[in-house]
Structures are given as structure tokens and as C-alpha cells.
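User
New here, explain this?
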Amino acid sequence: MALDPETFASLIDTVRRFVTERLRPLENQVGEEDRIPDDVVAEMRELGLFGLSIPEDYGGVGLTLTEEIAVALELGRTSPAFRSVFGTNVGIGSQGLVMAGSDAQKREWLPRIASGEIVTSFALTEPAAGSDSAGVETKAVLDGDRYLLSGTKRYITNADKAHLFTVMARTGGPASTGKSAASGVSAFLVPAGLPGLSIGKPERKMGQQGAHVCDVIMDDVPVPAANRLGAEGEGFKIAMRVLDRGRLHISAVCIGVAERLIADCIDYATTRKQFGKALSDFQLIQGMLADSQTETLAARALTLDVARRKEAGEGVTMEIAAAKYFASETVGRVADRAVQIFGGAGYIADYGIERLYRDVRLFRIYEGTSQIQQVVIAREMLRGS
């Protein structure tokens, strides 16, 4: 159920002020230290950011998809690392539980996820299975009233902070390409403290410092059968539903970052002078600004339209892929133009443009690469031909 307009407007205003007044001044510090300050995380909990998409019945804010998109746009106007602190709780780390969990599972976990007491993580990618999501090789072997999980998950966001993982593991059939491979994958809720589960050290990354990714290693981890999400073999289907919503959320974040970059470019171009004139007086600079604005407006319109249609119950798998593809590619182009408009200053760390240039590169990879989105778009088009 949507929030009443006054309450939602208040939420947007609160998030906007939090981003502007609290988070943006910390961007350089977070980039240098590769960590989000504990007091900032505590403030995120107090604001309810960990429970944005979790139903009110379980202590969350209970935003609709279009409302979540509007909040994600605001969160995009600062370093993406800040959103990652609670992003897995809002998206891929909790939505499998929201969509497919039993009443008992929801009662046990969702209130603590919504409060931020529990940080969640989504463990799908493996050393040999990234874009090929159906090719997971982590095994889950039934042993009485429990499953024994063994395998390695790679590049898992928030793994070093997570208390609960949604793990995709193979309960049947070999990890070969095709429908049979997908139908052999099941989903499990795996608490971090179980024996046999260990976390690798955070990877050094190109960008998004402060948002950590690590390996998750499982060696006969005993997971109660009651922790399976849905029936055996439904894991791939659950993962795809989760990723659909996650892709729209990321699309909105991309748009928010693009809008922030455009605003920064306008501020710089109107104050920086060359040849006795402001940069903004030069038509080639105006052309880059115009291209950035046009593409960002198109990405915004597409993402909001698809979110509304999905909320109305329409089948929009192709459109979701198109929104994520276009928005993530757009913010990459906008960031590149921003470096060009800033010139030498765009390459210098003090201005923050080079950091965002590195940060946004990841958007074209996670939640499905641009090439995977192209495959999904073409597949859905050809199905309807």
C-alpha cells in the first residue's frame, strides 16, 4: 500500500537532506578510508533506510516499487557506497524472503532486517558462474532434516558485514547449460554463524570504496531444511524475480548519479573561465550538457514507466532489462563527459568527478551485465515475433 502523499513527501525531503547535509561531505573520507563511519550507519537505521521495501507488518516502511524508485533517485546523488550499506536489505538480500518466504520465515527474519539489526547479502555469483546464473555449482545435499552446503560464492556485496545470506545452491541435476540446470537450483537462508562458513578478505576494487565484496566459502555448512525458500528447484525462479526488482532500483540510482553529475558540471561550467568567457558559453560544452540531460531524462522516463507497469502487474521483463541497460550505460557516458567538461580538474581526486567516474563503471556489470540485458531484451522480442 502506498504512503499518503504528505508522508511520502516528508520521507523524500528527509532523505534529500540526509544525502546533502550528512553524506556528501563525507564522500572523500569514505573513499580514502574504504569504510562508512559507524555513526552514519546508526543514523541510517534510525531513518528506517534498512527497511524501505519490507512490509509494514514486519516493521518496514513498506514502500511500493515506484516509491522505492523515487527514494533511490535521491540516494544516487551521493557516493553509491552509502546506498550499499543498506541496499542489500532493501533489495536482493531481503526480497527473496519477502517474495517466497513462509510466514514463519518472515516473522523470524524480516523485523530484524527492517531495523538494520540484521544485514543481509545475496550469494549467487561463483568463480565459474556469473552471467550464467543457472550454472551455480555450490551443492546442497539433504541430510535428514538439514542440507549440507558446499561451494564458494564470489564478489558478494556486504559479505563481511552480513548476518544472513540468501544462497543459491544446486539440489539436483548437473550445472550444465539449459533448462535442466536452472531447475536444479534451490534457495536457502543461511545465517552467518553456522559452522563451516567463512568469509574472505574484502577485494580491492576500482571504485565504490566503502562498499565491500568478499568470497563466501562453505564447507558442509549445516542449514536446516526449514531455511529453504520455496520448494526444491525454485531457486533460479526466485533469483530472477529478485533481480528484476533490483535492476529497476539500480536504474534509479544510475539516474540519480547522472543528475548529480550534470548539476556539478553546470556549477563548474558557469564559474570556470577560459579565453575570457565562462565554459558554459562555448557551444561544444553546451552540446555535452545537452546530450547528458537528454539521455538522463529518457532514462528517468523509461524507468518510472516500467516501475508503474510492473506495479500494475504487467509482465515487463524485457522493459526492465532495457531500463537497466539504458540507465547504466547513460550514467557511464554522463560521467565521461563530466571528466571532459572539468578537464584537468576532472582527473584530480579533490573534485570528486574522477571518483564518481570509477564508481559508476560497476553499474554496467552487476545485477546483470549490459550484454546480459541485451540478450534478455532480444530474447523477449523474438518470443513475441
In short: The two ends are 36 Å apart (CA to CA). The chain has three domains: 5-115, 120-233, 237-383. The mean pLDDT is 94.
